[in-house]
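Two folds, back to back.
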Amino acid sequence: MALKDDFKKIRHEYGKTQLLESEINTNPFIQFSSWLQHAIDKNIADANAMTLATCSLTGKPSARIVLLKKYDDQGFCFFTNYDSRKGIELKSNAYAAIVFFWPELERQIRIEGKVEKLPSNVSDKYFLERPLGSRIAASVSPQSKAIENRDYLNKIIRDFKSQTNKQIKRPVFWGGYRIIPELFEFWQGRENRLNDRIEYYLEKNEWKTRRLAP
């Protein structure tokens, strides 16, 4: 079915606020924390949702939405199946990019960096904090693999429940990753698409900033 041309006219004019060098923190992690907390305070749905982009060894990219579950000055953490497409791509190409976008605030944050697996004890702890249904799903779902239908998933979950009486432990193929930032970009929408873009980059292990043209 052909789309109507009306979608081409969809256009939101930005201009709620501005992003000035004089107002940002010199530490990008503190600046990130400020923006994320603001999104949470404004009750933005899934404020911790981020687009995660990975790339195969041959240069083919893929992207999906995942949830940020932990962050500090060491990096940004998420959890997944190591045998999923993103897990396989990260094994062969340990670099990724993430993007947070809060349209209600007209804000976006881009982060790029190297990726490493989290220690087993960190993944164990988080796995046990997850709801029971999520732990079961992580234990049985062959993530990213082709399956016959939805009934297949329902069956393997029923079979797993019938065979498991003990506490569900983290499967060896599931756990966390940390993205260690090498670059941040904070984006604030402005009038006429003359958006504010402030980039943080590393120079001799120190964070520097510069304004980018919109």
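---
second:
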Amino acid sequence: METYLLDWANLLLRWLHLITGIAWIGASFYFVMLDNSLRPPKKPEDAKRGVFGELWAVHGGGFYCSQKFLTGPQGEPLTHDLHWSKWEAYTTWLSGMSLLAVVYWIGASSYLIDAKVMALTPPAAVGISIAFLASGWVVYDLLCRKLMGRDGLLAVLLFGFVVLADWLLHHLFSARGAYMHVGAMLGTMMVANVFIHIIPGQKRMVEQIRAGQPVDPRPGQIGKQRSVHNTYFTLPVLFVMISNHYPMTYSHPNGWLVLVVMMLAGVLIRQFFVLRHRGQVKWWLPASGAALLALLIVLMAPAPVKSDGEKVSFAAVKHVVDTRCTACHAEHPTQAGFAQPPKGVVLQSAEGIGQHAAKMAETVASGYMPLGNLTGITDAERQLIARWYAQGARLAD
């Protein structure tokens, strides 16, 4: 029953995380577009009111005029009917951290720990996880504070810091766990930007405007900087969110470097759209991102498994599968933590093995399966399955 309830918690939290993530990212993308698409106000009276820029748009059968005031309206009160964009960010992070706890902390032995990387106990692994996420924010925030106004240098150092974190995590956790923690670290930075800097800064500015005091523009400048950072973190975080469906990425021997290339490609592509909103169309940016992805596809292509030599019998393959795989991939799994076979893959019969032969050969040979190698499969057994598939995956000897 406990495993069954955890599966439901996983499903509902994942659903909530997806919904609120769409809301947060959608709002973020919209406001970045809006900010970069502003034009000087056409009416002189609007400029006197303090309008910094405006954008006319058409959507949903109507016309909209969005105006931006850097320090509030001049000569008129600030409305009390303000819309705040924050709860979509907070809910995305809270649901994501709850999902991290359900999958990677409660299931640390299966999903977070890889004894071949580091033989951690579950409490130690969870402690390192929490400490890493917290320290990631501290380092990031310190860099931003120290290098305010030096955006080029800051961008280089931040990218280097994320790469270093990626490499370190791959030397602490399972590859899949490392990927998820890079994403969780970036997501924590994003929501902390909102919670610690953007919203409090905006509240201070609102208080000053309503009190009739001179408005300090610095909180707005800091908020703008952190919002810009968030938009560049978005595509790497989205990739990490879906990466667990593609073990060819994180289970690669240089999985940490694969993630670096994917993140860099995402940043280049995002930069294209940011500049495009300003009227600057630089096709070399998405072209460079696509070239990086194409190069990655070529370099990651698996070497063909030789099919010559002694024929692998199906009986030998079935023995390995029964011994190493069916603890999880059975109609009624016996492996602790699994109430049902992962992804509905059942390998108890010859028909089931034949149906999933291609994916089984790929994931077993790559080292991704079994998860955390809980069943102790050997390299020789992995190669046996790969050769059997290369020889045609016969289901009869």
